[in-house]
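Continuing the batch. This is chain 6 of the set; chains 1 through 5 are on the previous pages. Same settings as before, nothing changed between runs. Recording input and output for traceability.
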Amino acid sequence: MLFSNRTDAGKKLAERLSGYSGRKDLLVLALPRGGVPVAFEVARELGAQLDVFIVRKLGVPGHEELAMGAIASAGIRVLNMDVVRSLRISDDTIAAVAAAEQVELERREHLYRKGRPEPDIEGRTVILIDDGLATGATMSAAVKAVRVKKPAHLTVAVPTAAKDACDEFKREVDEVICLTTPEPFYGVGAWYADFSQTSDKEVCKLLERSFGAEE
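Output for chain 6:
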């Protein structure tokens, strides 16, 4: 195990990101739910604003752990065409899964924000954080959606990742930080002693602590 839990991973990731500390334009965006405890520690160490950027994986029906793509705010949809073609997934199936995930995306937006506006991204230094990258589909949707909002600098940072997924983002963003790229990878959870699911309650609690500190 490389990390005892997501909090531990966040503290270690913050050390690697210390060069961003104190920047007035810095914004740390977490991918819920698992990315929030990691990003909370990073934002706290760097003295940065924390917020969430909500993305939903599009799982293959019957094999939901396998991502055929993802959706994010601003109407962004990313598809893994290798998976779509190999499993001959129809447009109607993709549309149905995307519609269901859109409902969950909007539920989380309402629950986590509690009426707070989305953060201003244009012209800012943005660090996108998750607890790890396997296929990278979810993060890819997040990157495309954030790019629409015109950040000055965009970094993807994760505690652990499949090497191929990590390398892929080097062509998409300004900087990629993957603390560890074990081979064989097995999956994100394989590198955490405690990889229990992060709850909505925990996400809300951490965001409220962060927003309260900013005020």
